[in-house]
Structures are given as structure tokens and as C-alpha cells.
Amino acid sequence: MIRLRQVALVARSLEPVVDALCSTFDLTVCFNDPGVADFGLHNALMVVGDQIIEVVAPVREGTTAGRLLDKRDGDGGYMAIYEVDDLDRREALLADRGVRIVWAGNTAEIRGRHLHPRDVGGTLVSVDEPKVWGRWPWAGPTWVPRVGVATAIAGITVGADDPSAMRARWSEIDVHYGVRFERSGNRGEGLDGIDLVANDRSRVGEEHLIGGVRFRLV
After folding, report:
1. pLDDT grade, residue 113 (50/70/90)?
2. How far apart are CA 48 and CA 154, in angstroms?
3. Rg of the chain on CA atoms, in Å
4. CA-to-CA distance for 31 and 48, rounded, in angstroms?
5. CATH number, domain with residue 123
6. What is the pLDDT of residues 153-165, one digit of tens each?
7. Phi, psi dihedrals of residue 122, rounded to the nearest 5°
8. What are phi and psi of 189, to 5 degrees?
9. How confident is the model at residue 119 (pLDDT cuts 50, 70, 90)?
10. 37: DSSP letter
11. Alpha helix segments (H runs only) across the chain
């Protein structure tokens, strides 16, 4: 099995983007993960249904996140994280398709693999296998499912110079679920949109630009 479980944004300043997300979509911060300090970041995580929206921001020079902010000239999408139940099989598939692993993390509760963006295209992707399907240790020890303005993350939009080719690549490595590919604009390729399932169906179609990402209620 595979499903989109977490989507991350990157911002130069953490708090304004987090505050905008919380006020717009009735979210609350469930965790600030100290582990992201290893990447030169700090973060905040918020629950949508049983999925997660994360915002990261650099706290030192020379980070991958900081380089992405410079490349795309500001805040934007950063990462799509998939929950899987067959990580070993997927690692073998990725190796066969020439996809490099840029980070591997293993704990007693979850294993994660970040895929090289140049080998995937569009954005940083991770495939993560929790010890128990449905649990999500990255969101901290006390998070619980929560419904506010939205009940779930429906999917993401990735901008691509060649959407058909990128769609084929993501399909080839089996990480295309919940992704729409569109032609990239003047910011270049990247994660540009997040669709949220509206709790109040009268709000379907509503859009908000937050942290350089287009949020749409569907």
C-alpha cells in the first residue's frame, strides 16, 4: 500500500506561514520536531484528518532548504512524503530505476528514505514505512486525527517543464499517487499546490496562496 501522508512547505520565516495556515484552515501545531536540526532547520507540524502539513525554515546558512528558497525566489513547496508498507521492495525498485537515496532514517517506529530530486523530478519525495500502518511518529508522540476546515489532504500539484515526462517518471518509480502535474511557471519546477478536502462543501473551489503554495478546497 501507498498513500500521501505528509506535505512540507519551506519558508524563510517559519511563524508567519504557520500562523496563516492555522488561521485560514483552523489548524493547530501538534509538534516541533527537534530532529530537523540535523538538516539546519526548524519546523512545525499540523494535522489535517490523519495527514500532516509541515512547514520548515532554515536556521543556518548552506542548507538544501535555503538553496531551494534561493532557486525558486521565495517560499514554496518542499516535500511529499508517502506512507508505504513495503519499503524493502520499493528500495529495490528505486535502485533498479536509478534513483539515489539522499537520506535514510531508521527508528524503532518508522523507517524513511528521501529520494534524490534530480532522479525523481519536481520536488523532494520520501517513502516511509511505520512499524504499524497508520501511526506516524514524525508528527510527535501525542498527535491525534483532527478535522477543521478540511478533512484530508486530497493531493498535490507539481509544476514541471515537461509534465508528461515527469508523470511517466513518477509512475515508473510508483510514487505518482495523489499528484497532478502541470506546466511550470516562471519559478521553475516544484511543488506548487495542495488540495484539501473541504469539510463545509459550500467552500469547495476556495483558494488561498500561503507560503508560496496554492491551497485549494476540493
Report:
1. very high
2. 10
3. 16
4. 13
5. 3.10.180.10
6. 999 999 999 999 9
7. 95, -60
8. -65, 145
9. very high
10. G
11. 14-25, 64-71, 87-96, 117-120, 163-172
Number of domains in the chain: 1
Check: CB of residue 108 under 8 Å from CB of residue 129: no
Matching residue, cell 525523481: 120
The residue behind cell 532554515 is: 58
pLDDT in tens, 123-142: 999 999 999 999 999 999 99
Domain that holds residue 208: 2-217
Nearest in space to 155 (alpha carbons), one of 37, 20, 23, 4: 4
State the pairing for strand pair 101-106/76-84.
Answer: unpaired
Which pTM was predicted? 0.96
Q: Identify the DSSP state of 49.
A: B
DSSP string, 8-30: EEE-SSHHHHHHHHHHHHT--EE
Burial of 91 per CB tally in 10 Å (0-12, 13-18, 19+): middle
pLDDT at residue 161, as a whole number: 97
CB atoms within 10 A of CB 133: 12
For residues 27 and 52, give the distance between their C-alpha atoms in angstroms, rounded to a whole number: 10
Q: Encode pLDDT of 40-71 as tens digits.
A: 999 999 999 999 999 999 999 999 999 999 99
